[in-house]
Design brief:
Blueprint lengths: L2 H26 L17 E3 L2 E3 L7 E2 L14 E2 L10 H13 L16 H11 L9 H7 L14 E4 L4 E7 L2 E6 L2 E6 L2 H4 L2 E5 L16
Antiparallel strand pairs: 1-2, 3-4, 5-6, 5-9, 6-7, 7-8
Length: 218
């Protein structure tokens, strides 16, 4: 048999053997798991300098724990709150300050502008709104301010305390609050996780004279 007649047959045999070898190798190599990407929920948030900003009165943020311990709490997206039409000037300045800080990372002892802890976030928001008091711990803020009047517990701007005064945030409304936690500055619902750890409320007077500035180191 001439080489010209034998070459096509040899080529066919080599091709078949190559395909069999590739098939065997593919069966021996475990398939990689595919990542399933869930479709994002429809929100009304925008991004400003990499931070989440409220739009049309809504915010979307993960649930979170406090600066002490976030163990046992799930992280999920939640709806924000509707901005009350009856807000005064100071409250609106506070809301603007909160919007600017949403998404800012957490750091123990930080008061901004690029990192906050829980009490540092609260202090910074009130400072920007023109309400002056000494930056102090959650426990000191609890001692400094009086309990809210009846019906003001869930009024925007009221301070809400958790975990035996180890964590503090700013009430948005009856549904949730703003705070700085291990997930950064976020809005969280008053869900079972937080209501079980709730200590109480305090109300900051929105018009404070210099004589009312608290002393440090309490």
């Amino acid at each position: 048999m001439s080489f010209c007649k034998l070459f096509p047959r040899l080529f066919s045999v080599c091709f078949v053997l190559s395909m069999l070898a590739l098939s065997a190798r593919a069966q021996q190599t475990p398939a990689r798991p595919r990542l399933t990407v869930q479709a994002p929920q429809t929100t009304t948030t925008t991004q400003t300098d990499g931070r989440t900003r409220l739009e049309n009165g809504l915010a979307v943020a993960p649930q979170d724990g406090d600066e002490e311990d976030a163990a046992g709490e799930s992280v999920e997206s939640v709806e924000g709150f509707a901005v009350p039409s009856s807000m005064g000037r100071v409250e609106r300045l506070m809301l603007t300050a909160i919007e600017e800080r949403l998404g800012t990372p957490y750091r123990m002892g930080a008061t901004g502008p690029n990192r906050f802890d829980c009490s540092g976030f609260v202090w910074s928001v009130f400072q920007q709104a023109g309400v002056s008091f000494e930056r102090s711990s959650a426990r000191s803020l609890w001692q400094e301010f009086a309990p809210p009047a009846e019906g003001e517990q869930f009024k925007f701007g009221t301070l809400v305390f958790f975990r035996n005064l180890r964590h503090v945030g700013i009430v948005a409304d009856a549904n949730g609050f703003f705070h700085a936690s291990s997930h950064g500055v976020v809005y969280s619902r008053f869900n079972d996780y937080w209501t079980k750890r709730l200590t109480g409320f305090r109300r900051v007077p929105l018009a404070r004279s210099p004589s009312l500035v608290a002393s440090a180191g309490r």
